[in-house]
Amino acid sequence: MPDQSPSARRRFLQGAATLAGGLLSSRGPLVRGAEPAAEGVRAIGSRRELFVDRFLVDRLENAALQLHSPQLAPVMTEPANSLEYATVILDGDLYRLYTRDHRNSKFDGDVTEVTRYCESRDGVHWTRPNLGLVEVDGTKDNNVILHAPPFCHNFCPMLDRRPGVPAEERFKALAGTVKSNLHAFVSADGIHWRKLAPEAVITYTKEYAFDSQNVSFWSESEGCYVCYFRHFLDGKLRSVCRTTSEDYRHWTEPVPLRPNFPGEHLYTTLTQPYFRAPHIYLAFPTRFHPERGESTDILFMTARGPSKYDRTFREAFIRPGLDPDRWGNRSNYAALNVVPTGPHEMSIYTTPFRRFTLRPDGFASVHVGADPGALVTHPFTFTGSQLLVNYATSAGGQFRAELQTAAGEPIPGFTLADCQPLVGDALEQRITWKSNPNLAPLAGRPVRLHCRMLEADLYAIQFQG
User: Fold this and answer.
1) Using one digit for the tens of pLDDT, what is the confidence trace for 164-217?
2) Cα 307 from Cα 302, distance rounded (Å)
3) What is the model's pLDDT at position 7?
4) C-alpha 177: how far from its chain's center?
5) Which of 334, 358, 382 lies at the terminal end of a domain, its last residue?
6) DSSP 3-state assignment of 17?
7) What one-character-per-residue DSSP string does 179-210 give?
8) Percent of residues, the chain, with pLDDT higher than 70
9) In terms of C-beta distances under 8 Å and separation of at least 24 residues, what long-range contacts does 414-419 make, across chains too?
């Protein structure tokens, strides 16, 4: 059982805040993956690269990219308020949760709607602090932080990680409805909020828009603020637009991204930088089925910077499940942000208040079953002197790796025969070769990674110094 002592949790949270990180030696023929290989050399530096898309994948043999289903955690004994367009933010060692309370509203943006705030020290046990800020139903004894129609309908905060951001604007939020467009809010503590500007900062008049959770964040990889908001594609399908900003006040002309498959409604996107690899954006859209009793499920998509969404995985990521109440409309929305909740797990929260867990980086993997299989990557360059892998095998499985030239020739000393085989399960396991443990002489040179696997999953790789 993982160490759950206070000191272990402290070490984990400190690390999480800093991140916001013979049988298989045959060389049988390799077949190309489902998509053609892209030209050029990928420069991955020391970034952690997940196998959530085909960015690194050139060729596969008896292997496939496999989506992994999050596991439903036990019912929380101390839950927060029900999640309605909710946001979870890990701020240091404090989990902050923001959620709408529609309070029997008759329409979106009704005067009855409020925004509530909850806290947790472990992401599992929650408190509803008595803030005394907003009078609701004749009392201020509540955890309401905002009562400002129509903005409580989809108030969506974020922790601004831009270097040099003023302390009084450490938290930012977007909120608004179709008629109001999107307004910007700022806060020093995540509890007391004010408008950044009196007028709307994002407008869009081409199609019905904003009637959903509209997300924003500071993009470390792009060096700007990014917003993904809901709109109706061609006036027919619920979809998503994207816009960027240098200052959170002035935004570029929104661009429809068109990630929908034919006839597919994507009600929200929940797009976010992955906290262990912020150059990869994760998205958990709710797929809406109006022809099936308005039932919903949750999908998994990714994007890299300004590129369009990758739809490698078409099936549902989180299904409604056994509970009949999850098979109706508005029954399956994810909260914004995946957060670490232990050294060996990260959590995804969904309506009404459920928690799902995955291993870190565990959204998808290169999977090989009972027959030996292989992966060969596109050529790439790296920085560092060692290679770490997030991997898992069965007791009878195995994992080996070799480095090749860009032309696909094994590099002496770093071949499959030289590799110390791995059997086990680890989030960060160093790959070693018999006589060449230091990879620094290869740094900056185009290389390929060739992995031979049996009953194994490869979730992520990272080169480090």
Assistant:
1) 999 999 999 999 999 999 999 999 999 999 999 999 999 999 999 999 999 999
2) 10
3) 57
4) 25
5) 358
6) helix
7) TT-BEEEEESSSSS-EES-SS-SB---SSSB-
8) 92
9) 414/439, 414/442, 416/24, 416/25, 416/27, 416/450, 416/452, 417/25
Residues 270 and 311 in one domain: yes
**Element spanning 16, H or E:** helix 6-19
CA distance 317 to 363: 9
Residues 64 and 108 in one domain: no
Q: Look up the domain containing 239 and give its range.
A: 71-358
- Asked if residue 426 belongs to a domain, the reply is yes
Looking up residue 424, the CATH number of its domain turns out to be: 2.60.120.260
pLDDT at 16: 53
- Segment 232-258 shows an average pLDDT of 96
Distance between CA atoms of 375 and 31, rounded to whole angstroms?
10
Q: For the residues of 109-172, what is the DSSP string, one character each?
A: T-TT-EEEEEEESSSSSEE------S-BTTB--S-EEE--TTGGGS-EEEE---TT--GGGSEE
Q: Collapse the DSSP code of 13 into the 3-class scheme (helix H, G, I; strand E, B; otherwise coil) and give the result.
A: helix
Q: 81 pLDDT band (50/70/90 cuts)?
A: very high
- In this structure, of 11-20, 75-84, 242-251, the range with the lowest mean pLDDT score is 11-20
pTM, full prediction = 0.91
Task: Tell whether 84 and 60 lie within a shared domain.
Answer: no
The pair of structure tokens assigned to 286 is: 């709710």
User: What separation in angstroms does the CA of 83 have from each of 69, 87, 399?
Assistant: 21, 8, 41
- The domain boundary residue, chosen from 305, 326, 358: 358
Whole-angstrom CA distances from 3 to 153, 167, 343, 424, 428 are 40, 35, 9, 19, 17
- CATH of residue 163's domain is 2.115.10.20
Question: Given a cut of 80, is residue 30 above it in pLDDT?
Answer: no
Task: Kindly state whether residue 3 falls inside one of the protein's structural domains.
Answer: no
Q: Are residues 45 and 159 in the same domain?
A: no
Query: Which pLDDT score is estimated for 24?
Result: 39
- Average pLDDT of the chain, as a whole number: 92
Q: Structurally, how many domains does the chain consist of?
A: 2
- In the block, tokens 């991140």 appear at 19
